[in-house]
Task: structure prediction
Amino acid sequence: MTSSTLDLAPREHSARGTGSNAATGWTPPATHSSATGQALARASSPDYFDWLSHVQAAAGCTRPIRLSGTLDTVEARTGRLLDSRHTDQLPDAAIYKACGTRLASVCPSCARTYQRDAYQILRSFLVGGKGIPTSVAKHPAVFPTFTAPSFGTVHTRVVRKHTCTNRKRCTCPAEPCHARRDTPAPCDHGHPVVCWRRHTPDDPALGQPLCLDCYDHDHHVVWNLFSTELWHRTKQAADRYLAQLCKARGLPPVAKTTPNGKIRMVAPAQLTHGKAAEMQRRAVVHFHALVRLDGVHPDDPDAVLIPPPGLDVDDIIAAFRHAVRTISFTTPAHPDRPQGWDIRWGDPDKGFDIQALALAGDGSITDDMVGEQLASQKAGYLAKYTTKSTEATGFSSTRITDDTIDQYDPDGDHIARLVAACWRIGRPTPNPASRTRPPGDRPRTTTGGPFGEPWDCPDCGTHTRYRACPVCVAERQANLDTKTANGGTATNPYARLRRWAHRFGFAGHFLTKTRRRVVRFATLRDTRIVYRRTEDQPATDPGTIHTVDHLDETTLVVGTLTFAGVGWHNNGDALLANTAAAMARARHETGREELANETGSAVVPLLQAA
Result:
């Protein structure tokens, strides 16, 4: 039995700390309780290099997925089982797989991989490569930016003339925020409507409303929710504008065969896009896009053709300007706002910007270098937003639930009010589109033509001879048009606000593109898998045929795997795996620089995931 003693006078003591009051039987903690001790124990084990090779695919991941089960090798022709192996025979009795997230705040390594894939897709969108012909550099292309309207006055930083060389570290003096020559009266809530401060780039007040009570938080989150539908209608309107332009200029349409065998006449040119969403500091999204004009192939929808000579980049700009000014719609009725909310883009003269991209000229070396530089710049600009979410607002959260919504006060700050608005508007409500009445309240519908005896609609009071009220039918159809059909059942379009309250109502993806005439993420992933399978094979004569090159494989590996957990077993394993991955990335970057120096080409700058 041990007991603590207290000395009356200070003296030297061998226990921890500077005090002399300590238990004489104290023992230091075990070596394996610290990350360094765990890493040392793993590195000193005889199977360390086997373990390191086993976790190589997920070495840099912050929270890899652990899978357990069996791996069966089966003969493809006969189905005979050749070999069976359980994951218990592998190091750690599990297979490690990278989480694959795109969020840099969750896993920087996987986010960097996703960002580089996005960069290659967007770069090939402009200059070709990865299966896209290099002739796309001659296609007319634009770089539009779409912003949201104003929902209230917020603190901003305006620099009229930049003298800095790096906008990310801009130190240029800004103009006073919302300064006015006259001194207007306070708002209806008694708050000043002017701000004389010169905000710095890292000022937390940027994006915050001058008056929280005047700001329309409901309209803000509803606009975020329907912003993807607004982009879809804008792109559709631009395509229709170009189709009408082709018809007016006498460009012949293309006879295209539909999947059901019918012939459809379509315009000879169509738009192909890649779009990235950026969350502004005021917590509303705006979109950057790369839009390219392609020709139409009558039989192959994936073919990338040069557009007809009658169209140029000015026509694309005119098409998008027309769409931004004309496209708007009203959301379905909500109990809090029966007339719905108006969804449109911001001021076309201030909030919409579009740039023409000149990627190819007369084919000289100078033009090629300028095109490569411009393509890398625009692709990198869009790719950096693919790994972000709401970090620009200073708020980052997982999905909000009934247990955590109480943390957001409806009368709190700007972020809390946006989250509370999503939760309140997204509550379960009856949907007007699915409204039905008892059969006795409606006149009985008989067979025959569209007309019958005159009657008054009990829903809207319209006097009509149509068997179905045309006003109610149009209203129900308008409600359905603003919500994608889900099995033919009408649903509440605002219900998604609760699911995406942690993103202030934005339910779209931060990177979208057309399905055809662009490189796919799956193509890049498959190429990476083939490279990893063959990178360790010894060099052989060119005539050797590898199994991976066979289109008709003789054996199949069938994995029956189940979820075993998330993350590394301990901090020591994570330290070793992430260190090995960091060293491999450093060697890779050094090799890229040396290769660029030997070939005399420019090195694409390293993309940052955060």
